[in-house]
Design brief:
five-stranded parallel β-sheet; Rossmann fold; single chain
């Protein structure tokens, strides 16, 4: 799995290169935004990890540039902790956001999730979690081999999450996907439909392990 790290902190890059290489990643690195775009175009990495505060194009500009031609998962690793920065990065096209300082185990878990998403978007038509199988081609969900009845809105919500496994899906993305406009106001509808999905698909709906809420941001499907 080829991983591009874009960060202007050489000590951070060196530490990540050693750790991630030991876990089987083929790591390449760039020290600024322009170099990151050039390396991505040359090497076509499977996953891209980048900081927001970089010289010669900041992280947001890099995300916009990358999203013009690649769907490779992008994870932002940044010292910026404000929700506005996270929302801006996610709206620009990032798939996940990790705040510095971070635990390496958490970062590895996020990378594994994005790697699975990268593989899933390469042509797989089914996504499985727990005893649930979501068939994106047939537009059906089964649990322990039995088909689960979902309303059209529940299916659209589940389908969008299943097409981005492991990634944070914002409320705005879901509102646009389900109702066709990101200007639609979320008056608790998403929470209601997520609650219904958990009742139908989670072993313990009150303590979900797959259909997770990211407070103030959106939702995430963990396989």
């Amino acid at each position: 799995m080829k991983l591009l790290i874009a960060d202007d902190d050489p000590q951070m890059v060196r530490a990540l290169r050693i750790t991630l290489s030991a876990h089987g990643y083929d790591v390449v690195s760039a020290g600024d935004g322009a170099a990151a775009i050039a390396l991505a175009a040359q090497g076509h990495p499977d996953v891209i990890m980048l900081d927001l505060g970089m010289p010669r194009l900041d992280g947001i500009e890099v995300i916009h540039a990358l999203r013009g031609w690649t769907n490779a998962p992008i994870i932002v690793v940044s010292g910026r902790t404000g929700s506005a920065d996270k929302v801006e990065a996610l709206d620009a096209g990032a798939d996940d956001f990790v705040t510095k300082p971070f635990q390496i185990d958490e970062l590895l878990a996020r990378l594994r999730a994005l790697s699975r998403r990268s593989l899933a978007t390469g042509g797989e038509s089914t996504v499985g979690f727990g005893d649930v199988v979501v068939d994106l081609a047939d537009k059906t969900a089964t649990r322990a081999g039995t088909r689960v009845h979902l309303t059209p809105t529940e299916w659209r919500m589940l389908e969008h999450l299943a097409r981005h496994p492991g990634a944070l899906v914002t409320r705005q993305d879901l509102l646009k996907e389900i109702w066709g406009s990101e200007q639609v106001s979320d008056s608790g509808y998403l929470r209601l439909y997520m609650s219904q999905l958990r009742k139908k698909l989670e072993r313990e709906p009150s303590a979900p392990v797959h259909l997770l809420t990211e407070s103030g941001m959106g939702y995430r499907l963990v396989l």
